[in-house]
Specification:
Number of domains: 4
Order of helices and strands: EEEEEEEEHEEEEEEEEEHHHHEEHH
Number of helices: 7
Structural class: alpha+beta
Largest sheet: 5 strands, mixed
Strand content: 25-35%
Shape: flat
Number of strands: 19
Distance between the termini: 84 Å
Amino acid sequence: MTTVNARPIEMILKGTAEHVDILVADIDGNLIDATEVGLTVMNASEAIEHRDTYPGPYQLLGTVTVAAGGTLVTGVGTKFTEDISYGDQLTIGAETHTVAPVTTFRATDTQLQLATPHVAGASGATATRPTRIVKVANATGQYYINYGDPAANTNLPTQTETTTLGDRLFQWGVLGVVGSERVNTIQIAKVVSPTVVRMITYFRLQIDKAIKATSVDPSAFCPLGYTESDLLAYLVGGLGIINAYQPYPTWCRIETFPECFWQTLFDSALVVGINAQTLFAIDTDIENWSDQGNAFVLNHHPKLSAFSSVMSQRLDKLIPQMKLHFVNSGVLHTEMGSNWRLQQIVSMAPTGALFRNMFSSGY
């Protein structure tokens, strides 16, 4: 039996390229080389952005036609937007050409442009390109794809695969040995902005006790507690907590959260991280344990639970107060008698006040 190990979340800085990798092993955990590796990359909207196979070359879906001396390639049953990246080397017939950059021609599922004319032309032909899945040299069972346009900084002015923030789902399908069962695993690569990278650095100083226990000497700096992926997940969870509170302002991405209130986000993310540790403590605490006459107590859960409760009570006050900084309008519902005037109520209200279900009567 074959197993596939991959980091749950890979973090990619916007506009850069990053190795997204897997390890292939047998049932005993020994690394083995795969007979075949397949990959499908989808965005958060479940649209396919890339397909690949190892070993290559990768054969594109459908058939293509290009006129002799022409550069425009027309496909039938093709999905060029999923199968090619700008700058790929595309082989049609006996000729290999570079796919023109997006600044020259924006490809569709059935049309793309070559950077140089196809001399002989082709009709109803298959097209192939080199695989982008790489087996690590002199290493067993280690494979990766360099996610980010391969031709960036050559015939591309910037990256296009990693210019959009958000999640990418990498679905790997691995065949260990011929005749064995194919094993699938899904890995998330999250494209983040420099703002998020800064945020993670500051948040780590608050949550990661391993940093507090090591030297501040850069040569000895060794965070041992949480990965960047862990901290990113906690920040996303913390934003969800903030958005659940009233009043109405919400933030869909942590990139857009106001920097002047980062500490509130860190406190919310801390609650998410502590709750994760509390669940771990439930499974691992041993309140009464003895060995050769020595008694031990491992009882983290009550302390973690108490701290989480204190932080939650603190956030119950802080988050609504923080959100009021962004409320500049409200709705006033009143029921008044004939001797009351709306002007009296409004004149007594402070600037930016928010009224909810206020009923008055007078005779």
